Amino acid sequence: MPDYTNISWADFFSHIYIEKEALEYELTEQILAMYPDAVRIQIEHYKDIFNRPHQDCEIQKKAPSLVLAVKHGELIYPGARVCQNFDNHYFYYTSSIMNCPFDCRYCYLKGMYPSSCIVVFVNIDDIFAEAARLCEKHPVYLCVSYDTDILAMEHLTGFASKWCAFTSAHDNITIEIRTKSAFDYSTLSKYANSGIIMAWTLSPGPVIDMYELHTPSLNARLSAIRKAYECGFTVRLCFDPMIYIKDWENIYKNFYEEVFRNIDAGQIYDASYGLFRISASYIKNMRRRHPDSISTYPYSNINGICSYDPGLSKRMNNLAFSCLSQYIPSDKIYKPEW
């Protein structure tokens, strides 16, 4: 499995599938130029590859193929109910990339997608145009790193910098870029403003080691956070998902202490926490495709959302809030709504 924490994009993809329609886009040309030795296969539609039956996602993850496609239909979607909206009424997300270079064993993408291929939609300007139209109607809060980690893919696509530039040019939009990466934010510092929220998913070291494969370490993420707020970015911390593991109480208490020993809580805009939860349909797929994963735990199904039983959930939520409220004002801590 490649080491995504220090990735060499120049030799990462050996096979690239290209929609015929995508050939005319400048981004396609730029990406293909990075892979002169890759096998190139022209296709009619990305789903011909991505939605094939009987794919082995675990094998694919070891050497994923890249698919370059053009996105049609709905480009921006209303936020899902399992996601926190941070008190934003007009809460949306968009997917300019499908799938993630990281391999988090709890990720809902493992239950949502039938493939580990990474799909890049090269018509990013169409998504910008749709976002601009929404901005004319009302304020927009838009998650742009939803079904991937766009900062982990930045050297390939440049989407994070494009979104930052777009947001800086529009007054009626706030974007959240959520990441586990250790990206160098000095390259984006010219875009730092209140309309761009850099949000990190943080987990204890044992959870990273067991369930967040090939992601940057906690120390690397904390270093990136410091760099981001020093560059002037608005920073959000996301302690989500909390995972039930052996000795979880001590592990998470020590974890919260470690986080705030290494960053300035006064530089943090807000924070959220949440337990592992996933739709019942996705976890069914995960159990079939990834039988050795976190999905095998006997979760409680409440209104179609699978998570820990109510008693354990209450204990975990209480611990998170108790620890966080020592460092972050309570009105800046976003609690679960499920």
What does this 3D model show about the protein?
The structure is a single chain. The chain is of the alpha/beta class. It has a single domain, classed as Alpha-Beta Horseshoe (pyruvate-formate lyase- activating enzyme), CATH 3.80.30.30. 33% of the residues lie in helices and 22% in strands. The chain is built from 12 helices and 18 strands. The strands form 4 sheets. The chain has an 8-stranded mixed beta sheet with strand order 4-5-9-10-11-13-14-18. α10 packs parallel to α12. The protein is globular, with a radius of gyration of 20 Å. The protein starts with 14 loop residues before the first strand and ends with a strand. The relative contact order is 0.12. The N terminus is likely disordered.
Features:
single chain, 338 residues, alpha/beta, pyruvate-formate lyase- activating enzyme, eight-stranded mixed beta sheet, five-stranded mixed beta sheet, 12 helices, 33% helix, disordered N terminus
